[in-house]
Amino acid sequence: MGNTAVVVGGGIGGLAAAIGLRRIGWEVTVVERASVLDDAGAGISLAANGLRALDELGVGEAVRKASRGQYSGGTRTPEGGWLVRMDGALLEKAVGTPIMGIPRSTLHRLLRGCLPAETLLIGSAAGSVQQIDHGTVRVSCGDTILDADLVVAADGIGSKVRSLLFPDRPGPVYSGSTVLRAVTEHAVELRTDFELSWGRGAEFGHIAFQDGRAEWHAVLNLPAGTRFADPLAALRRRFHTWHDPIPALLEATRLPAVLHHDVNELRTPLPSYRVGRIVLLGDAAHAMTPHLGQGACQALEDAVTLAAALATEPTVESALARYDAERRPRSQAVARAARQAGRMGQQLTHPLAVALRNTAMRLTPSRAATRMILRHHTWVPPQLTRSS
Across the chain, what does the average pLDDT equal? Predict the structure, then answer.
């Protein structure tokens, strides 16, 4: 089996894939189109499955040290009433860890720190990816040509590689929701580690960080492409009657820090995650809505599963077939569950439907709610062993 790979995309999934491949003895080049790695982004929650994947990649301890456990919080109404409380201690007892909150920029830096600088080819966009013979794939990056035994496409929801492999398949579509998010400029007094609040066609939530700052996000049902001249002013108007600490989170935020993206998803599942020696990973393979907080965790699962298959299977082709067989059913099931969670949660607008949902949530015992979470968190990674 050959042992050279090109990873297209230097996000969480691409960096994790590169780390996993290097741990099993492969030579890796990560091609990232951004010319400056400014670590943009807000915050991220990592569940037990994602943390276990990071453990197998050798970076789990460092990530935990930089994270804050989500022991308290839950889901509320705009008036502040609790729909369901989160029991982080119960979750930790069940799966060994609470959900952890970390700035996305910190996670990026920790992952990148596991790779030699020469592994990263920054400011180089993959112009074409071609299987030139049975065992070689060629990536063209301007004047730079990279030949490898494997190409891992981790180039995100708008994946160019995916469109080359599956030109007739539908691409990403708008979910009906748009999200604004930011990290506060300074520490904010918070009573909980994590919260979501659901109104009619709107959600506001926060993740508390270790240093006292917090990430907040606002999800709104709006036409695709909607933008605001002053997003903070628009959010203050939209959420001015909602409970504390929402006003304080907005007041602690500088306007340049606010990110605004439409929530798109790969609604039509792909028939395969690989073609020849080219394999899709993360959002390029299964971009999902954020309503379960599983997007990054699924990409981390992908990375470890791919490396384990390549370390133990006799050929690249058999390893990629195994990866596809293991990852496609699970990741596509999680994507469906995330879509359904959004439809029954933030996206609901009819007053009767909202009232029925709220009543059902209030009547659901905490342990039953925890069991619902566990069905996505209990994944156990394969062990990474160096290939011979």
Answer: 93
Superfamily designation of domain 4-69+98-170+266-345: FAD/NAD(P)-binding domain (3.50.50.60)
Angle at CA of residue 151, ends 150 and 155, nearest 5°? 160
Mean pLDDT of the 106-128 span: 92
Q: Give pLDDT, residue 135.
A: 86
Give the DSSP letter string of 256-271: GG-EEEEEEE--S--S
User: Three-state SS for 133?
Assistant: strand
The single-letter DSSP state of residue 170 is -
Strand 150-153 to 173-183 pairing: unpaired
pLDDT of residue 374: 77
Alpha helices per DSSP H over the chain = 12-23, 48-57, 60-65, 88-95, 104-112, 160-165, 231-238, 246-251, 283-286, 295-312, 316-344, 351-363, 366-377
Segment 363-380 shows an average pLDDT of: 79
C-alpha pair distances (Å), 188 with each of 218, 253, 335: 17, 10, 33
Q: What is the mean pLDDT of residues 216-235?
A: 97
CB 266 within 8 A of CB 295: no
CB within 8 Å of 374: residues ≥ 6 apart: 91, 94, 95
| DSSP labels, 7-75 | EE--SHHHHHHHHHHHHTT-EEEEEE--SS------EEEE-HHHHHHHHHHT-HHHHHHT-EE--SEEE
SS3 label, residue 374:
helix
Reference 18, options 285, 306, 294, 323; nearest CA is: 306
